[in-house]
Every structure is written in structure tokens, then in C-alpha cells.
Amino acid sequence: MLKETERPGEQVTIDQLVKYINASTHHRYVYHFTDEANFKSIGKHGLLSKNRMRAGGWWPAATGGNELSHSLDDHRGIPDYVSLCFTRNHPMKFLANRDGRLPNPRYLGISTEVLRLPGVRVAFGVANKNDVQIRDLADAIQYMDLEVLYTQTDWRNPEINSRLREAEKMELLIPNHVPVSLIPKVF
Predict the structure, then answer these.
(1) Dihedral, CA atoms, 93, 122, 115, 162, nearest 10 degrees?
(2) Which end of the chain is more exposed for a tag (fewer CB within 10 A), N or C?
(3) Counts for the chain of helices (H) and strands (E), in that order
């Protein structure tokens, strides 16, 4: 979680962030976790926000969230966003699999071009938690731990591992829709 007392780092633009991620040896995508049962609808519609799905009168075969988390999304004002993550190790994916909501979980690699869409935000932790800060991407970049996400670091070092675990909880919030054209990879 971002703490108000933390000082921002160097100001990085969204274009610079896209180039930085694309040059990484660790992650050249941002990610969305889902169940294989949802591939057909994703192939047809892309990734849609909860409100877009509700308005369309349908719901995916398997969801990562449960009734409580969907209610918390509504409370936090984020059901108009599609949640993405920065690594293929988001803790919520493991909980959804463990609880049986995602019996065949997979990660989708989302093109970093999604970061250029208007209105992208970053949650510094699980977005529907009350104490998690959510900022516009352009402002959030300076607070993100890009080093631990996108460069070679010693993840066995307890301090670095702690930084990585915090960074892995962050969520990208994409307004309304991620089109199929921005989903080039399945892991």
C-alpha cells in the first residue's frame, strides 16, 4: 500500500513506462487472470467491466471474485473498470483458485498499449479494500516500484521480496473494456 509519507520517485511518463515494460526481461505484458471457461466470451467481447456485463445481461462462466468482493467493488466505485495486474503472481488469483471460483485459472497477457487508454488508474493493493489508494496512472507511476517489477533483483533478499509482494498486489484499473486486439497472449 502506498503511504502518504513516501516520497515520489522520478517523474516517468506513460510512454516511458510502456517502453520500460516492453524492454523488461521479466514482464512484457500486464495481465488479467481468468478461468479457461471464459475464453469463448473473452474472444468475442474482450474483457468487460462488471457494469458492462450487467448491462449486457450476462455474466462469465467463472469469476475470480465472490459476492462479497463484487459488493466491495460497488462500494469502492470500481465496477466500471477491468482489473489487471503487473505480474503473473497476483495473490487474488491464488485465493480464487483455492476457493474453487477459478478451477482452471490462466493469465492473459495484455499489450502495454492498454496503458495509453484514457482514464487508466492504479490501485496500490487490492482495489476494493477501503484503505488502498487509487490514483490516475500518470500520477501513480512515480510511486510504483518499477525496479522490483521489471529488473533483475535478488528476490531471495527478504527486503526485496517484501517489496515484490507489495508490488504484486497492485491493480491496474482499465475503464469499461479491454478489446480483444490488446490480448495477444495466454499463459
Answers:
(1) -60
(2) C
(3) 8, 9
CA angle 143, 147, 150 (to 5 degrees): 115
Cβ neighbour number for residue 142 with a 10 Å cutoff: 15
- How far apart CA 33 and CA 63 sit, in angstroms, is 10
Averages of pLDDT over runs of 10 residues in the chain (187 residues) are 46 95 93 94 94 88 77 85 94 82 91 98 93 97 95 92 95 97 94
Q: By CB neighbour count within 10 A (0-12 exposed, 13-18 middle, 19+ buried), where does 105 fall?
A: middle
Q: Which residue has the cell 467463472?
A: 62
Do residues 27 and 167 make contact, with C-beta atoms less than 8 angstroms apart?
A: no
In the sheet that holds 121-123, the strands lie side by side as 134-136, 121-123, 171-175, 81-85, 30-35, 105-110, 185-186
